[in-house]
Write a sequence for this structure.
């Protein structure tokens, strides 16, 4: 809706953490297919799908900066306490390090959390 209201394009970005070499190609193919399915309801909005590998927060920040993004929109699981300290918060790292604005949306309770996804949706002027 933000892209539609502001005439922006979307970049749907997924960062795949590094794995064992024999798992990499299979993981890449799976996540590329998943990524390609994410599309806005308004078909007139231009969409780019980007699959990166590495440390999620660093890759999101780097890509947003390299591509001169205006906004990064990302979800958070809302972890607190020990779980957050052990796992860290990708959203928090991106908020602290990004040179553009970051909109963080907390996922509602009861929404199943997939094991690996870290997805950032970044918008830029059309």
């Amino acid at each position: 809706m933000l892209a539609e209201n502001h005439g922006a394009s979307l970049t749907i970005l997924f960062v795949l953490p590094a794995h064992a070499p024999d798992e990499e190609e299979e993981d890449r193919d799976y996540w590329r297919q998943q990524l390609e399915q994410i599309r806005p309801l308004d078909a007139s909005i231009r969409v780019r799908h980007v699959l990166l590998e590495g440390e999620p927060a660093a890759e999101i920040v780097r890509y947003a900066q390299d591509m001169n993004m205006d906004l990064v929109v990302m979800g958070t699981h809302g972890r607190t306490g020990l779980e957050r300290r052990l796992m860290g918060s990708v959203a928090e790292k991106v908020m602290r390090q990004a040179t553009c604005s970051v909109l963080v949306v907390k996922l509602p309770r009861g929404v199943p959390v997939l094991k690996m996804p870290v997805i950032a949706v970044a918008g830029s002027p059309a």
About this structure: The chain has a mean pLDDT of 81.
